[in-house]
Amino acid sequence: MAETAEQVFDSVQEVLVDALGVDDEEITPQAKLVADLGAESIDFLDIVFRLEKAFGIKIDQSEMFPDNVLNDPQYVQDGKVTDTGMAELRNRLPHANLDEFDASRDVDDFSNVFTVDTVVKFVQTKLE
Amino acid sequence: MRFELIDQVVERESDRLVAIKNVTAAEEYLADHFPGFAVLPGVLMLEALVQAGRLLLADRGVADRPLVLAEVRNVRYGQMVRPGQHLKVEVTLRGGGSAEQGYDLTGVGSVDEQVAVQGRFRLAPLARSGGNELEKQHNG
Amino acid sequence: MRWIWIDRILELEKAKRCVAIKNVSLAEDVLHDHFAATDRYPKTPVMPNTLIIEGMAQTAGILVGHANDFAEKVILAKISKARFTAAAYPGHCLRYTASIVRIDRTGASTTGTVERIDPATHESVPLAQIELMFSHIDRSRTNLAFPEHNFVFTDQLIDLLRQSGFAPAPGSTPAPGAIPTR
User: Of the candidates C1, C4, C83, which has its C-beta nearest B28's C-beta?
Assistant: First the structure.
């Protein structure tokens, strides 16, 4: 099924509105799932389930939200992601924009990486 | 059990209200929720938010109808609240709203600074009775 | 007041669907506070919508628990959506229909409808649509120390199942104190 970028965005918008209980207007490409849309860990689970249903794809929770990288002492030291950690993240999340996060590398800032656009790009890579 | 979920109002502004619900083992339903592990039921945390919202809107002139919960959007549960603890609830009016449309609110409830419940909801006036006999008997 | 917000289970299709009912009665204390008379309106006894959500949570929770033979502690994690289009008064019967959308190791998502039935006319009116998410909790997911046994599925709920004619399979209901298998 060849979905245009706009169709993907519209479907992702619908998923996020349903999963997060926010209004259509709040779903902008740069909106951060946690800081702007108030997402919690249960919501990430809900988002993955609804994306699977909306697009007919299979997603592993850790593909989208790599929890185990942040908990690994190889990749995180004193609350900051190491060089090896950054390389691992870039490898695991080709759909995410990690440049801004690279500046601080603070584990507490990591959730800011996940914007609406990250989700759209992730879905597009899965549909290819 | 009395269906009163707000024990004290702590702060009050035109669009925001903070209140406390004390949780006590004297609340009999706790013996069922759960036996051997009493915790405030999630829906009663939501009811505390609803009742705080009603207090916030009390002066808004919604005339002669009680305000009921019309819609809930993404209410999530976190920390549990046990007898001897209290739930601190904060509700904020999300701009606009009217007696006809209802009022959109955001609510957060926390216990010892940790989030126990958070989400959005809408309160609207209870509709007048339609043709239903039972409605007419109980709702004037 | 007991914490049981459904009266009888009418249908139970393992891992699929559960239908339950609840009668609304003036014998219930809560209706006398919701709402008591004020200077703006007379006494108006109407079933609180949060307790209708709980009725759905208990119907869907039993469905989700039963799907795993009550081996997991199933707790309400999220009310994704609840929309109310009518109200229930003393004399009405509420009918809850819950379906599993998804269930796995971590928990489940359910969707459901609530109807209001008039006992005299048998007329049924849609009252609410409710979508919920449940989590299977265990010691690793929370810093609270809670008991090993499945305290969620109380004697009261299991008894309701039995009285409705849906006995849990022999040996599948953990006795209090038993360690749930994974």
Answer: C1
